[in-house]
Amino acid sequence: MTVAPGPRSLAARVARAAGVLGVFAILGPALGGVLVFCCVYPVILLFGLDMANMPSDQAATSEHSALNMIGPLFLFVAMAYAFGGVQAALTGLYAAFAEWRDGLLSNRETVVAAIVATLIWIAIIYSPLNPLDANDASGSTKLRQATQIAVALIPIGIVCALFCRWLSRTFGLLSGH
């Protein structure tokens, strides 16, 4: 037997919605950067390019420590804010709206919000608004590039959005199922 939540004040709804938006917009891209780092960095190492042990003015050492990976990890996280920040914020806006509305945000809604947010961002990139100056490619090239970006970003966005949903529930910001 489940108990329906009681009426919530407007201030409480707004505060929780703002918290949900913050979790998605602030922690989502960082999580995406760590996820991509964990998936891509081993492949980079397999091909012999170790970003942690790049040549420097000092003598190179063959010693490899976890501390050497902090620089590349920060680079991946910074790039995640550049390439995933808008999607995270858009997904967070929907999640915040769901919390403000009735406190219910399902896994399905979270996945759909992440997909739609990514597609909106890709549409903006390849639209006449053109924030990243993508007008140098022909129409078919733009479509191919947009599809490649979608294939890369959508799975990462879904995983991050579901994790942010879980974090929001863990922090007590999402009240529903």
Question: Can you summarize this structure?
Answer:
The protein has 177 residues and is an all-alpha fold. It has four helices and no strands.
Provide an overview of this structure.
- By secondary structure, the chain is mainly alpha-helical.
- It has four helices and no strands.
- The chain has helices at 10-46, 70-101, 107-125, 139-170.
- Helix 2 (70-101) packs across helix 3 (107-125).
Sequence-ordered SSE layout with sheet pairings:
Blueprint: H1 10-46, H2 70-101, H3 107-125, H4 139-170
Helix pairs in contact: 1-2, 1-4, 2-3, 2-4, 3-4
The helix/strand class is: mainly alpha
End-to-end separation in angstroms reads 14 Å
Morphology call:
globular
Question: How much helix is in the residues?
Answer: 55-70%
Order of helices and strands: HHHH
Number of helices: 4
> Proportion of β residues?
under 5%
Low-confidence stretches: 57-62
- Tell me the total number of β-strands: 0
Q: Could you tell me the mean pLDDT?
A: 82
Rg computed from alpha carbons, rounded to a whole number of angstroms: 20 Å
